[in-house]
């Protein structure tokens, strides 16, 4: 079994969202896109932010960063406003 599961990741990423608010992530696709973008940043030379790096692969590091809450996913609607 893959750890963390996508269900666990979605809970962590959507943590702090009030009832009735739009969740930050509402599909596996959103998690995949976010992890892939962060993995590309790591490949390009960014330092990993995860406390516990169990695998040297960039995608595994990116998933661990999401799970630890080190990387935040900004909804597209918010990134356009800034």
Descriptive key words:
82 residues; mainly alpha; Eukaryotic RPB6 RNA polymerase subunit; 50% helix; Pol_omega/Rpo6/RPB6; EC 2.7.7.6; DNA-dir_RNA_pol_omega
Individual helix count: 4
**Span of the ends, CA to CA:** 39 Å
Silhouette: globular
Radius of gyration: 13 Å
Strand content: under 5%
Fraction in helix: 40-55%
The number of distinct β-strands equals 0
GO molecular function, one term: DNA-directed RNA polymerase activity
Keywords: DNA-directed RNA polymerase, Nucleotidyltransferase, Transcription, Transferase
Function: Promotes RNA polymerase assembly. Latches the N- and C-terminal regions of the beta' subunit thereby facilitating its interaction with the beta and alpha subunits.
EC number: 2.7.7.6
Give a nutshell description of this structure.
It comes from Roseburia hominis. The chain has helices spanning 6-13, 28-43, 58-68, 76-81.
Describe the 3D structure.
Helices cover 50% and strands 0% of the residues. The chain is mainly α. The chain has a single domain (6-81), classed as Eukaryotic RPB6 RNA polymerase subunit. Helix 1 crosses helix 3 and helix 2 crosses helix 3 (58-68). The longest helix is centred in the middle third of the chain and has 16 residues, at 28-43. It is globular, with a radius of gyration of 13 Å. 15% of the residues are buried. The mean pLDDT is 84.
């Amino acid at each position: 079994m893959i750890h963390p599961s996508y269900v666990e990741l979605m809970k962590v990423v959507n943590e702090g969202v009030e009832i009735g608010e739009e969740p930050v992530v509402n599909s596996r696709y959103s998690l995949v896109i976010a992890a892939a973008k962060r993995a590309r940043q790591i490949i390009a030379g960014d330092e990993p932010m995860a406390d516990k790096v169990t695998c040297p692969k960039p995608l595994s590091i990116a998933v661990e960063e999401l799970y630890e809450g080190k990387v935040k996913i900004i909804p597209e609607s918010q990134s356009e406003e800034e």
